Amino acid sequence: MMSEAASATRRGFGSDNHSGVHPEVLEAIAAANGGHVPAYGDDVFTQRAVAIMKGHLGDEIDMRFVFNGTGANVSSLAALCPTWGAVICPETAHINTDECGAPEHIAGVKLVPVRTPDGKLTPELVLPYLTGFGFEHHAQPSVISVSNATEFGTVYTPAELRALADVAHEHGMYLHVDGARIANAAVALGVSLRELVTDACVDALSFGGTKNGMLVGEAVVLFGDARTEALPYIRKQSGQLASKSRFMAAQFIAMFEGDLWERCARSANEKAADLAARAAALPGVTVTQSVEANEIFAVLPEGAIAPLQKRWRFYTWDEAKNEIRWVTSWDTTPQDIDELIADLTALLPR
After folding, report:
1. How confident is the model over 108-128, as pLDDT tens digits?
2. Is residue 150 a contact partner of residue 289, using CB atoms and an 8 Å limit?
3. Which of 40, 47, 202, 322 is most buried (CB neighbours < 10 A)?
4. pTM of the model
C-alpha cells in the first residue's frame, strides 16, 4: 500500500469513505452546536430532517438515524426478518462479505448468498432459493436484500427493483436495499429518490450518507406496511441510538434540503467515468465491469499493481485475476485522475 507520508498529502482511490467531510456539512454541524436540545432524536433538527426526507421519499415512512452502514443494515434486517428467517442476497453483498457476521450475530438471521456476474440479483436468480416455506427444518425466506449501487458499481433501475419487490411480495417477503451509495445510483439514472425507492415498492432502505460527504450517520427507512413498532427498540438494542442525534440530523438537512447530495454524487460519478475511459484506453488495462456509478474495476498488468499502490491508495479486488478497484469521491479532482493515469502509464510494459 502507499506510504504514510503520501497518504497524508494525497487523495486516493481506496474508497469514497476515505474522503473528508463536505464544507457545507461541517458548517451545518457547527450551526447545530449552540445551546442545549433534547437527546435521542427528540429535537427540532431530527424533526426537520425527517420532514425533509419525507419530501423525497413520501409520508409513509419511519426514518431512524444510526451511526453507520452496518448498523443500518442490521437494524433493517432485524426489523423485517424473524430469527428463523433467511435473507437472500448477492454473494458479493456487503452484508455477506464485509460486516464480520453482524447480520447473523446481532439480527440472528441466515444469509443465503447467490452468485451473480455483476453484483445484481434478478427474479430468475432468486426464485430457486424461495423454497421450504412452512417447513420447520428450513430457515424461512423472509427478505431479498440488494445494494444500490452494488459492490461492483452497477446500478439497479426502478423497474429492476420493482421486479424483485414483486417476487418478494408474492412470497410474503420484503425487499431491502443497502443504499450506502443510493445517491450515486439515483444520479447515475437521472431519477429522483422517490422514483428509485418508494415507487419501486422497496420495503426498507439503509440510507447512506458517509460515502457522499457526511461525517458520520446513516438511516434506517421503513416504508408502508413494513413499518413496525419494534424498530426503536431494535435500534437501541443494536447500539445504534445516538444521544446527540441533532448532529446526524443536521447533516441530512444540509445534504437534502437542497441539491448538495446530487452535486456530490454527480461529481464522483463523472470522475469515475473519466478515469475508466482513460484507463481502458491504455495497453494492457481492461475495465471488467460496467461503470455506472463511482466504482471502477480493472485488470492491470501484474507488475504495475504493487508499484502503483506505493503512490496511490486502492485495493486489489481479485489477486488471481490482477483485478483492482478504484473508487472516486465527491472531492476527487481532475488533477488526481491526471496524476494516476500518468503514474499508471509509466508502469505499463513498453
Report:
1. 999 999 999 999 999 999 999
2. no
3. 202
4. 0.96
